[in-house]
Amino acid sequence: MTRRIVLALLTLTVLVIAAAAVPLGFAITDREHLAFRDKAQAAARVIASSAEEHLSDREPTTAMDAALAEAAKAGDCAAVYDAGGRVAAATPCLVARSGEVADLVGETLTGREPEPPEKHGRLLAAEPVGSFRQPVGVVVLARSTDSLDTRITIAWAWIGLVAAAGVAASALVSVRLARWVGRPLTTLDTTARSLGEGRLGERAAVVGGPPEVRRLTATFNTMAARTEALIHGHRTVVADVSHQLRTPLAALRLRLDLLATAGPENAPELLASAQEEVARLSRLVDGLLAVARAEQAVPTPVAVHVDEVATDRVAVWEPLAQERGIHLTARCRPAPPAALGPDHLEQVLDNLLANALDAVPNGATITVDSCQVADRIRLRVVDDGPGMTSEAREKAFHRFGNPKARGSGLGLAIVHRLVTANGGGIRLEDTPGGGLTAVLDLPLFRDR
């Protein structure tokens, strides 16, 4: 990719520079030629004005000779021709009457303005003496084009130097640009290869490169982190399931072995114990399936009135609370609906209330309240039971995080997954005066 970027930018730069430099060079060349001709004709015109005094007015040749001397001093060769085409005066380097000079003199004497020829390293400029239509003579000036060629060569050299510098600068910039773009992509490719080989902790460094590449790298890192969490989560599930199922299976096997060798009088008791272990296994499997369904949930938010659902679930659990001598109440304020998946809030409250009812002693109080706090709906389940230590609260949302739980130890893990999947948050706090408070912050439902 680096090579392709460099070649593309260099090609574009060369084309742009060529399209600008070549016409500029020809324009400078034409301008230099035009300026050179104008200066040569101006010098011939000065000699012609001095020669007019001699050829028209028969004045002495003093002014004409002085003008010719100045031309010779400047390095030019000049000659003054009379109306008959004869040489009236000339510089030491006399312009010979070659065919080219003769043609210039003849055309100028007839009233035409010939184009100054430029051949053999010199420019010939012809100017009429006197009236343009009826000249009394002609001045022919020959000027070497060496200085012109030198200036044109220098101009083209500067243009070539600037073009070469532009190409070199473009090459440098293109290489740096290609590396700037390519280096994070190369790093990303290497990281993806490492990740594919099983090194799940590999991450691409989000440094340098265009914003799009940095966003791609950040997205890749997020994907890698989620993949790692998913794989580790699956490994943890397998380890947890293996650990949690081993104990009831061993107990069930022991009771079945005892049942096979026990007498008829002990059979009912052993059979009842085996049935209890089967029920425990069933609860454990049901809890694991619930966690798996919660982790795979991709909710489509709907409008859920938290106060109504909370009041309804409290009414459902109230008979069990009364049976255990527990005071269960709902104190929910009307508020805008929350954005939650269908039936998710019911599952969350059922798990929280079941945990609270199992944790608090007879005569305790459980209160469910809700209200709007800023752009969230806050739902709390408050009890005055024994509460939890800070270490237990940190692990409460993990699978089997509470080894002292009476149930499967999966209820809070299900609650945490359902709440976070809907964009909410949950935390456990101490209840003032003793007990545990589960605080849920749920997002508001917004019409799209």
Q: CATH homologous superfamily of the largest domain?
A: PAS domain
Which class of secondary structure composition applies to the elements?
A: alpha+beta
- Label the CATH architecture of the largest domain: 2-Layer Sandwich
Strand order of the largest sheet: 2-1-5-4-3
Largest sheet: 5 strands, antiparallel
Question: Count of DSSP E strands?
Answer: 12
What is the level 1 CATH name of the largest domain?
Alpha Beta
Kindly state the percentage of residues in helix: 55-70%
Give the uncertain stretches in residue-range form: none
Structure annotation, total helices = 10
The residue-averaged pLDDT reads 81
Q: What radius of gyration results from the CA coordinates?
A: 52 Å
Whole-number count of domains: 3
List the secondary-structure elements in sequence, H or E. Answer: HHEEHEEEHHHEHEEHEEHHEE
CATH topology of the largest domain: Beta-Lactamase
What global shape is seen? Answer: rod-shaped
Measured distance between first and last alpha carbons: 43 Å
Q: What fraction strand?
A: 15-25%
Features of this protein?
single chain, 448 residues, Beta-Lactamase, Helix Hairpins, Heat Shock Protein 90, 3 domains, five-stranded antiparallel sheet, 12 strands
How would you portray this structure in words?
The protein is of the alpha+beta class. It has three domains: 2-150, PAS domain (Beta-Lactamase), CATH 3.30.450.20; 211-295, Helix Hairpins, CATH 1.10.287.130; 302-443, Heat Shock Protein 90. The protein contains ten helices and twelve strands. The protein has helices at 2-55, 62-73, 99-109, 146-196, 211-261, 267-295, 306-323, 344-359, 390-395, 411-421; strands at 77-82, 87-90, 118-119, 122-130, 135-144, 302-304, 327-332, 338-340, 365-373, 376-383, 425-430, 436-443. Strand 3 (118-119) and strand 4 (122-130) form a beta hairpin.
